[in-house]
């Protein structure tokens, strides 16, 4: 409500590459992340007249504890750039959306080229 009253603001959601392409072994995770993408696109249209942007970052394989159970070499083999992403690279995508008041309703994959 505060953003609506100020007629400005940025909402940045975090989804996942699995929300865009699905993962056979992660059905519920993929479904909820896809829901975030749908929310982003619909909400962007709803609040645009109030000057609020709504975007989404969809990280790929990022070097975090979430992936500790997997071999780093195995994970790197899945990424065209041949390495895992970093939390800092995801943060830079969030900052991009925060600093661009004309970008809204977009999904930015930070995924090393996984399509």
Question: What can you tell me about this protein's structure?
Answer:
- The chain has 115 residues and is an alpha/beta fold.
- The protein is built from five helices and three strands; from the N terminus they run H-E-H-H-E-H-H-E.
- It has a three-stranded parallel β-sheet, sandwiched between helices.
- The longest helix is centred in the first third of the chain and has 21 residues, at 27-47.
- It is elongated and about 50 Å long.
Outline of this structure?
The chain is α/β, with parallel strands linked by helices and 115 residues long. The chain has helices at residues 2-6, 17-21, 27-47, 72-77, 87-98; strands at 9-14, 52-59, 107-110.
Uncertain regions spanning at least 5 consecutive residues: none
Order of helices and strands: HEHHEHHE
Give the tally of structural domains. Answer: 1
Largest sheet descriptor: 3 strands, parallel
Instruction: Report how far apart the termini are.
Output: 36 Å
Average of per-residue pLDDT values: 94
Structural class: alpha/beta
**What is the assigned CATH homologous superfamily?**
NAD(P)-binding Rossmann-like Domain
Strand order of the largest sheet: 1-2-3
């Amino acid at each position: 409500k505060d953003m609506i009253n100020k007629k400005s603001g940025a909402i940045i959601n975090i989804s996942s590459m699995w929300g865009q392409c699905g993962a056979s072994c992660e059905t519920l995770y993929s479904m909820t992340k896809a829901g975030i993408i749908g929310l982003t696109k619909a909400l962007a249209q709803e609040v645009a007249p109030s000057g609020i942007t709504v975007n989404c970052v969809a990280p790929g394989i990022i070097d975090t504890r979430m992936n500790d159970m997997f071999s780093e070499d195995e994970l790197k083999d899945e990424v065209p750039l041949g390495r895992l992403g970093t939390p800092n690279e995801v943060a830079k995508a969030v900052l991009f959306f925060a600093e661009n008041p004309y970008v809204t309703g977009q999904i930015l994959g930070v995924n090393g080229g996984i399509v």
